[in-house]
Amino acid sequence: MKKILFLLSAALLTTAWVACDNQKTASEASETAQTETTVAPSLEGEIVYVRMDSLMSNYDMYKELNAALETKSTQADNNLTSRGRTLERNMADFQDKVQKGLLTTRQAQDQQDQLLQQQQNYVDYRDQLLNELAEEEQVMMNRITNSILEFMVEFNKDSKYKMIISTTPGGPILNADPALDVTAEAILGLNAFYAVNKERL
Known about the structure:
By secondary structure, the protein is mainly alpha-helical. It has one domain (about 40-195). About 60% of the residues lie in helices and about 5% in strands. It contains five helices and two strands. The protein has helices at about 25-40, 50-55, 60-100, 105-155, 185-195; strands at about 45-50, 165. The protein has a two-stranded parallel ribbon with strand order 1-2. The longest helix is centred in the middle third of the chain and has 51 residues, at about 105-155.
């Protein structure tokens, strides 16, 4: 099944570099270095990111809905395979009777028409199943996306972060500071959010 990944927002992460004055004394430089190593960076007010592939693969809602869709897809595939084999057997039987001269011209025409109709029914049924599965997958992804967006509002309700963006493999964000990665925290919160709101989501 297609795994559909998406961006919640995009932003450029910038890093400010402060150059030390060449005229600083050794004691001033030492004092500055000591201050920088003892002050732990805070994520508050930062632009943080979530790895969307990890978030999705660990999201209970995605696991449950995707498993159900996979089961339905497998059942549809088995059903199509069974119908296809029946059609093949009927066609082979028809050809055998024609070659052995066991059918009149009228009978052969009638059976050929029936086989063509069976073949068209098979194609129509296959297309209907594929369309239904594609629609169900789209609805599933819409539900998951909406639930994640709703959770993110709750996740950042105190405006702790300036912005929460998502990264996806091959997406526009090629590199980011791992310290800004809040994926693990988001996964825990998202699954707890889903457990409480499962019935309405």
